Structures are given as structure tokens and as C-alpha cells.
């Protein structure tokens, strides 16, 4: 991707503003995710409610950024690296909005737990915590890779998703064991399954963002590609 | 000048037939350089023009796009001091159209050209299309009438002019005049059509109709088009060549050139970073 300046300075400003806005939206979603996890672990009803309310901002940013993307396509008719950046932003916006939705699901589970005076003081909470940390790290890494258009960093994020998926499977196995051993844990365990699933989906969306980064940086579409194909795409500097 | 034409030999006919059967290459440009006197306008260009495909030539002003296009119908021969090096071999007969032994008129019978500005002859619509046919010796009036209609239909102009075929061509709109020029070129049953910025003097509606026509025409003829309009190249062409200072910088499928160009110079040009 060329880093030179356009003959149109205004176009440069618009592209720079677009990148800044997607990273700003990423920051907002990251904060939403962190608050959602905190609200679930404590649990904290007010914090959970603030996440649920905050999703409106994420949705607004999605609509606004989509508008900017459509406007730039119409007015600038972008090509090559510019086109890939704009398409990459459009795809990433959707991923971020969905991460926002998953954070809201976690916050709803936290609120529900608080309302029902439930508590999950068990090893599976620690596993959900570490799974959330891993998914949050993936999201942060994907956004950093987007900021730097670093395809190699993006490829390593894609690799990390396997770990988050495995953690989800492990949590599921543990929760099934708990439910079998003590039917009284069925209801809170099911809540935990929804939360774990939301975290696992966040990992998937972060992985998708990393794939979009590779598309923007290298022009290679690595969605559904094997690890070997991704490695090949990234090495084509 | 290039090497001697070898049309007519069994070997060349076999090679030509093979290339045509593959449906791959209509013209093979090899090591083409062109000189305006001492100035080297084209530098050692090589590329394949694919059959029944549209190949767009893009690049900044003065890069050699039109010079390259004009090599194909030997217009440069009209001016003294111009000379070619290398070859352009036209399939299926594998003849080097730049060879001194090949008559430029024969080349122009096979390769038509449409210019930037519509250039109808100062006569009727009918005569504009019939002129080339008569020049080629097509005498029976019925045959000429049929061919004129066929050409005007192919150029998507028939319905608009069928009731005024004997009216002056200069009374047509700019877009219609350009389509008339295309009909005139099509009447000679060309194998290759050259378009030199065919829509730069037209409004968006007329431009759209010419672009639509180009897409339809490629079913029957191979097309080379020079354009300054990058979106037009992206819309109409299957292959794109980017030229800069007389050199071929990059040649590839249009999708690849406009989404993932291989050369930084190409990317800088098509994204508007070209200083």
C-alpha cells in the first residue's frame, strides 16, 4: 500500500479521519467489553446498565462510519490501497458493532445475576475471566494491527483465536460436569455458557478484523484461508 | 523497422491458427520501440493483446499511450523520420504488421480506429458507412445497403438514424457521431478496433452508451482503448496496461491492477498520488 500523499490534500485528510474514526470506535468497543466483563465478575448492576446504554453510541458510530464510507466511494471512487482501506473500514465497522452487541449480552447476564442475587463463586468464573482477557487482547491487537496496517501482527492474532475457541470448549465441559453433579447449578451455569459463548464470538470478530487488516495491507483475502495460505499472503511484501 | 513479414508460410499459418484456437492472443507486441526522429517515444514494450477482450492503456499525458495505439494502424508512417523497432504480430496469420513489406493500407483494413473527437465525413450518414465498403470494392447496392444497416445496428445507432440515413452526419449529436464513426469502422469487419479516448468529448449519457457498446463489441472484435478516465478503464476493460515515460510499467487483469497493483508507480497513479 502506497504511503505517499494524494494530489488532493482533502482526500488525504478524509482517509486519515476515517482511520482515526474506526480506531476511536474500536476504543469505545474495547471499553464496553472491559466494563461488561467487570460487571459480570463483580457483579455490578450499574456498570452493566451503563454498558447496555452505551451500546447506543456504538450503533450510532456504526451508522455514521457507514455513511462516511458510502460518501467516500461516491465522491472519490477509490482504487487500489485506498479502496482496500475503505472496504476494510466498512467490514471492520460491522465486526466492532457485533462485538458491542456481545458485550451487551454479557452485561445483560451480569444484570440478571445481580437481580436474582446469584453468584458464581467457582473455578469456571476464573476460566471465563482468562477467556475474556484473551479475547480482549485479541481485539486490542487487531486494532493495533489496523492502526499500523501490520499484516504480520494480524496473522498472529488470527492464530490466537484457536486458543479462545479451546477455552470455550473447556468451559463448556466443566459447566456440563457441574450441572450433572448438582442440578441446582443448572440455571447459573447456563448464564455462564451464554457469557462464555459471547466471549468466544468476540474472539471470532477480532480474528475477522485481523483478516481485514491483511486485506487492507496486502490485498489478499484470507477469510476461510488455511494457516499456510495466510502465512504465504503475509510474506508477499 | 521490424523483421520481414512471413504471412502465407505454412508454419506461420499453423502458429496463427493455434493461437486463435486457444482464444488467447490476437496481437503479440515484442520489444516495441518507437522513435519520433531521435526521440524514443516507446521503449522496448512487450505485451499480449487478448482476443475478444478489451485492453485499456492508461498513464499520464505524454506517456506514450496514443503513440503505442497508433503503431497498430501505422499512422506514424505518414510522417517522415518516424521509425519502429521490434514487432507487432497479428494472429491468426502471425504477420508482423510493422514490417516494411506489409502495406499499411492492408493493416488498416484489418485494424479500425476511432478517434477522440468524432470525425464523420462531410456527407450523409449512409455514405459515411458505405464509403469504406465501396473502397474495398463492394459494388452491389443491395449488399452495401445490408452492410450499412448491419454496421449501424452493431454500433447501436440504427434505430436513431434509420429514417434519416440520407441526412447529413454533421447534424447528429456528438455521441451519435461517435457511434457513426464506430459503425464506419465496423463496416470493414475489423479484427482489432483501436479507440483513442473515444468519450473525452462526450457527455456522461453518450459516454455510457459508448462504454456499453464497447462491452458488446468485444464479442466479435478485439479492442484496445486509450483513456484518461481511470473509472472508464476499470468499467470497460478486461486487461489494463500502465505506461509511464514510454515504458510499460505494469500489465495485468484490470481487477488486479485496480485492487492490488504490483508496482508502486501504478498504485500512485491510479490513486491520484502521482506528482
Descriptive report:
The complex is a heterodimer of chains A (237) and B (275). With 237 residues, chain A is mostly helical. Chain A has helices spanning 9-41, 45-76, 80-115, 123-148, 151-181, 186-218, 227-235. Chain A has one domain: Methane Monooxygenase Hydroxylase, Chain G, domain 1. Chain A is built from seven helices and no strands. In chain A, helix 4 (123-148) runs antiparallel to helix 5 (151-181). The mean pLDDT of chain A is 90. Chain B has a domain at 10-120 and 190-270: Rossmann fold (3-Layer(aba) Sandwich). Chain B has a six-stranded mixed beta sheet with strand order 6-7-8-3-9-10, with helices on both faces. A four-stranded antiparallel beta sheet of chain B has the order 2-1-4-5. In chain B, a hairpin with a 2-residue loop joins strand 9 and strand 10 (247-253). In chain B, helix 4 (125-135) crosses helix 5 and helix 4 packs parallel to helix 7. The radius of gyration of chain B is 19 Å and the shape is globular. The chains are: A mainly alpha (237), B alpha/beta (275). Chains A and B meet through helix 3 of A and helix 9 and helix 11 of B.
Task: Identify the notable features of this structure and list them briefly.
heterodimer, A: mainly alpha, Methane Monooxygenase Hydroxylase, Chain G, domain 1, 7 helices, globular, B: 275 residues, Rossmann fold, six-stranded mixed beta sheet
